[in-house]
Amino acid sequence: MTPPTRLSATQGLDVYVVGGAVRDALLGLPAGDRDWVVLRATPEEMSDRGFVPVGGDFPVFLHPATHEEYALARTERKSGRGYRGFTFHTGADVTLEDDLGRRDLTINAIAQAPDGRLVDPYGGRQDLERRVLRHVGPAFAEDPVRILRLARFAARFADFSVAPETLALCRAMVESGEADALVPERVWREISRGLMQDHPSRMIAVLRDTGALARIAPGLAADPATDALLDRAAGEGLPLAGRYALLCTAAADPAALSRRLRAPAECADQARLLKELLPALREAGGSHAAPRDSGSGDAAGRDATLRTLERADALRKPQRFAELLQAARLAAPVDPARWQASLDAIRTVDAGAVAREHAGDPGRIKDAVRQARLRALSAH
Ligand SMILES: Nc1ccn([C@@H]2O[C@H](COP(=O)(O)OP(=O)(O)OP(=O)(O)O)[C@@H](O)[C@H]2O)c(=O)n1
Ligand SMILES: [Mg+2]
């Protein structure tokens, strides 16, 4: 038997591209992954055609050649609270309109046939033109992740507004406790993607307006002050860890928030470091740059500088330190060039050579290295 080719796998199947690919094409944006919906097919038929079931709760398959996702047209009904607890129905009687009707936003509920024909029963194109994020229908409320998606799309499409009825529905969902059932992995997935958009502040604003922020990240809910910082960070192309760290400057306890959100270690570390070291990066940034002959205050300044570099583990993690400085200077007057110069200065100390000098007295090595680094700071 010859393996199924791209053509034979879908030959005679009633398929449409749906979701983000259609939306982005209509917006004139570059194409991402295509998602397909399949009408009037059974899981057995898909398998016979060489499609591979992705597993999990939903009837979704990967194309044998393109590996794009093909989902059987379905209707969903909520059988429990929160993200889990769906039952769904696929079958020959499920229409394209049914399938589009259980989707989140009208702009994501447009289908396109292989011949280019658009199927748009819920006014998605009009909402694209009017720049509105609007839910398709009551089924929106069956999946609390959609509140996060809405917020993420607001951050991505900065000139779109959220329809008042959609905002009201999200508020009602939050009030009824739906947001409490969100699993941390899904929350982090959406928040991290939203932070990487051009206008992350709009995500936070939507989450705040709907009340969801108070549920998923209680420490952040009260402080809009960091919102503008996030957009500047996006404008400067900061990596995720730096953006997340700036977001967390609004939290009393970034470590607790990171645990709650299950943030990856590099994000959690950067958030903790920024909160802990921002005062030192700012103050010592002035004093360690003081004139060399300014006496004892200068020595104290150098000591503070070295201590800050040590706490940041800057010698071992220079890239992380550079990103920390990049984030810090958005939040406070911090001079990254001076800190980099200090790091370069202590890097000139050959710790191995110092250790060999004190080979007879190993207990002295640590302090000798430190003294050498302080001398290097005063010389630079
Ligand atoms: N919680 C969800 C997730 C997805 N969808 C539907 O499934 C489509 C595909 O989902 P996904 O690929 O996650 O999002 P996209 O809209 O394609 O956006 P992105 O550009 O981020 O892929 C969406 O457009 C939407 O129609 C939904 O209704 N509710
Ligand atoms: Mg997609």
From TrEMBL:
Keywords: ATP-binding, Magnesium, Metal-binding, Nucleotide-binding, Nucleotidyltransferase, RNA repair, RNA-binding, Transferase, tRNA processing. Residues 15-134 form the Poly A polymerase head domain. Gene3D superfamilies: Beta Polymerase, domain 2, cca-adding enzyme, domain 2. Residues 159-222 form the tRNA nucleotidyltransferase/poly(A) polymerase RNA and SrmB- binding domain. It comes from the Bacteria. Pfam families: PolyA_pol (PF01743), PolyA_pol_RNAbd (PF12627). Its cofactor is Mg(2+). The keyword Nucleotidyltransferase applies. Belongs to the tRNA nucleotidyltransferase/poly(A) polymerase family. This is CCA tRNA nucleotidyltransferase.
